[in-house]
């Protein structure tokens, strides 16, 4: 006789710790990226608040500097895996300049000029750019729905760029410039993720993450050298210190390590799909905490952008190598 699951005598087997550990190991990349979504979602308003008092390039330099005490010990401990040939070093430098460096500059300069909600929505187009560049280099198959999803995403981004809550659909110089800077950051991020995948698989996720973090930190410090030379207590208010620590330790250090690990485990397209959820958290946090304005056109842009990236995510198919001709397969089978 089968036991009634509602019976008080039915025993429910507890989930064991080894089972939880195994499940985490199987889905650790997805789990880590889910945690980063929350960190990045709140990072938009954290950065927006800090940039109201700190110069963008100074902010970038400081938040990378505060992460170095964590990254440098990791580099020293794994120094054997950080050895690169001249060719690989040149490749890593190029990937860093085309990716994190451009992204960090565009992000900081852009969010200072527009709202955190706009920034989050435009950054959410990154999965579409990743998919587009993946198609161009032949990583994924070209599908009509995939192209349609990219078009919807870009259309939503245009509405976000043009939206202003107080006067409806209109052009604002600051919003337009800020949104353009953030959009360039999203494009560079998508392009960099695609071309970083082969390097990560060959050199290792941790190795490339450490190299790119250190190189980005050097670039940020160099760009902010004039501001840093004249840095004073008045330049960085005490209220901005927690924001810089949050940005540097959680968003930057954890973000660099998790992203490179996720690209290796999940691939660039699936990894970047997690950026779809950033605007939901950032928009709610921006409106509720920072009292940022909300408009009908911003709502339309948000809906169109999110719908577009969902279509992109569901219509990504990896391109498989062509199967050998039938005659070759028969000859190969006969030779075994």
Description:
This protein is an all-alpha fold and 336 residues long. It has one domain. It has 16 helices and two strands. A two-stranded antiparallel sheet has the order 1-2. Helix 3 (56-65) crosses helix 10, helix 4 crosses helix 10 (205-223) and helix 6 (116-123) packs across helix 9 (173-203). The protein is globular. Residues 165-169 and 326-336 have low confidence and may be disordered.
Write the layout of secondary structure elements.
Blueprint: H1 17-26, H2 28-50, H3 56-65, H4 68-77, H5 86-113, H6 116-123, H7 126-136, H8 144-162, E1 163-164, E2 168-169, H9 173-203, H10 205-223, H11 225-229, H12 241-266, H13 268-272, H14 278-289, H15 296-314, H16 326-334
Antiparallel strand pairs: 1-2
Helix pairs in contact: 2-6, 2-12, 2-14, 3-5, 3-10, 3-12, 4-10, 5-9, 5-10, 6-9, 6-14, 7-8, 7-9, 8-9, 8-15, 9-10, 9-12, 10-12
The structural class is mainly alpha
Q: What shape does the CA trace take? A: globular
**Which stretches are poorly predicted, pLDDT < 50 over at least 5 residues?**
165-169, 326-336
Annotation field: number of helices: 16
Strand order of the largest sheet: 1-2
């Amino acid at each position: 006789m089968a036991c009634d699951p509602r019976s008080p005598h039915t025993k429910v087997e507890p989930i064991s710790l080894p089972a939880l550990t195994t499940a985490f190991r199987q889905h650790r990349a997805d789990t880590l990226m889910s945690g980063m979504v929350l960190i990045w979602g709140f990072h938009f308003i954290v950065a927006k608040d800090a940039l109201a008092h700190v110069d963008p390039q100074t902010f970038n330099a400081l938040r990378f500097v505060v992460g170095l005490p964590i990254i440098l010990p990791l580099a020293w401990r794994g120094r054997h895996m950080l050895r690169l040939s001249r060719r690989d070093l040149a490749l890593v430098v190029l990937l860093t300049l085309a990716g994190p460096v451009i992204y960090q500059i565009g992000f900081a300069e852009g969010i200072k000029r527009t709202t955190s909600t706009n920034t989050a929505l435009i950054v959410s187009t990154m999965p579409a750019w990743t998919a587009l560049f993946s198609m161009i280099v032949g990583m994924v198959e070209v599908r009509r729905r995939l192209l349609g999803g990219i078009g919807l995403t870009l259309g939503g981004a245009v509405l976000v760029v043009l939206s202003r809550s107080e006067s409806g659909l209109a052009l604002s110089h600051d919003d337009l410039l800020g949104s353009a800077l953030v959009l360039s950051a999203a494009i560079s991020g998508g392009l960099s993720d695609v071309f970083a995948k082969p390097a990560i698989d060959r050199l290792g996720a941790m190795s490339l993450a450490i190299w790119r973090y250190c190189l980005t930190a050097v670039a940020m410090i160099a760009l902010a050298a004039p501001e840093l030379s004249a840095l004073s207590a008045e330049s960085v208010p005490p209220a901005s210190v927690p924001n810089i620590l949050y940005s540097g330790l959680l968003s930057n250090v954890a973000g660099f390590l998790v992203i490179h690990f996720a690209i290796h485990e999940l691939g660039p397209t699936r990894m970047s799909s997690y950026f779809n959820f950033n605007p939901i958290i950032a928009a709610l946090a921006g409106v509720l905490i920072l009292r940022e304005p909300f408009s009908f056109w911003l709502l339309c842009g948000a809906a169109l952008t999110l719908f577009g990236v969902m279509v992109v995510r569901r219509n990504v198919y990896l391109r498989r190598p062509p199967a050998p001709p039938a005659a070759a397969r028969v000859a190969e089978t006969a030779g075994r």
